[in-house]
Amino acid sequence: MQQDILINWSPQETRVAVVENGVVQELHLERALEKGLVGNVYLGKVSRVLPGMQSAFVDIGLERAAFLHVADLWSSVATRHADGEGTNAALVPIEKQIFEGQSLMVQVIKDPIGSKGARLSSQISIAGRMLVYLPQDNHIGVSQKIAPDQREALKQRVLTLLREDQPEGATGGFILRTNGEDASDQELLEDIRYLRKTWQRIREAALVKAPKSVLHQDLDLLQRVLRDLVSDETQTIRIDSREQHERLRQFGLEYMPAAAAKLQHYKGERPIFDLFGIDDDVARALGRRVDLKSGGYLIIDQTEALTTVDINTGAFTGARNFDETIFKTNLEAAGALARQLRLRNLGGVIIADFIDMVREDHREAVLQELRKQLSRDRVKTSARGASVSPRRIPRGRRSGGDRPLPG
Q1: How far apart are CA 262 and CA 21, in angstroms?
Q2: CATH topology for the 124-211 domain
């Protein structure tokens, strides 16, 4: 599968489109005045503790106070692990862990949306090119997207490197990202050292900066393209700004030489998104109604609580009988739905109301197709059937939000 990445840059806005076989699969946007905050680390100040909700509001210097739930407090996680009970163990009440006026190091895990402030965690994680560093945890893990039969060997490899290069007082755990699967020992060691230095800078900043200060900012969208979006399938990365091309090339040569080799400066007079029809494609794809090639269509409605997707046959009268028509429409809709999740960056609970199918093998085939299409997503997802009537309708559930993608 051929993949190309197109980057349209202006001083006000950066747009990135991931195109596979001529079709837009992902769209990322970052505005200069509205940059995403996910991954940023702040020295926050607890402004209010709500025992009834087991939550707290934390001032990190934004327009609205950010939200911190007890489950996202590092001390709660540490207690649960120590008890050996996993995530089902009882949490220590939030009012016994933090208090109003307290300074607290926190990380944004979900950007503000609508009237809601950012969501925070005090469990800090720092993403590198090949590894994610967990400075408060000693866990060593491997990306779930790496084949199960390779994970244990890779885990032992990381453990060996850590034993051979363990500075005095160094602590913390690591998760090997997907693009670290084929990395050399030297590349992994360089990433480990870089991440430890980054954490040391964050700790030092926390000692001297005032509450509501930024301690660490994640990479900008252009840099995250090289870190998170480039894969072996990527043929080219085209960017229409000479200045940003050079900046990105220098960054890539230092940290990701293989990705930097795919960079190209687009010099054409027509806007790059216009030349490849990206804007028209996205406009069609992001409407409330999304048409399928067969004549069927999806209706997508998004609320703060969940997203609903209704699948209809529309003008498709297709195949030999009614059951086959419904089956083919649902199969096509499963692929279109997975693409919509990526394009719209949808998260949370997603209810997909597929057309009722009488045959059990048809229902199972549609559910498997949905899972197959979702497996391409960088965000962790799960999909399962749900019994909401005498007939079962596949339902998708997607968890996660805007982030360096875990790899």
Answers
A1: 17
A2: Ribosomal Protein S5; domain 2 (3.30.230)
Residue 401 has pLDDT above 60, yes or no: no
The per-residue pLDDT for range 36-65, each reduced to its tens digit, is 899 999 999 999 999 999 999 999 999 899
Residue with tokens 């005095």: 168
- DSSP lists the bridge partners of residue 44 as 104
In 10-118 the beta strands, taken as DSSP E runs, fall at 13-20, 23-31, 41-50, 55-59, 66-69, 103-110
Q: How far apart are CA 345 and CA 25, in angstroms?
A: 11
- pTM of this structure: 0.68
Query: What is the H or E stretch that residue 398 is in?
Result: strand 392-398
Q: What's the fold here for domain 41-123?
A: OB fold (Dihydrolipoamide Acetyltransferase, E2P) (2.40.50)
DSSP states of 87-103: GGSPPPPGGGT--TT-E
What DSSP character marks residue 226?
Answer: I
CB 231 within 8 A of CB 2: no
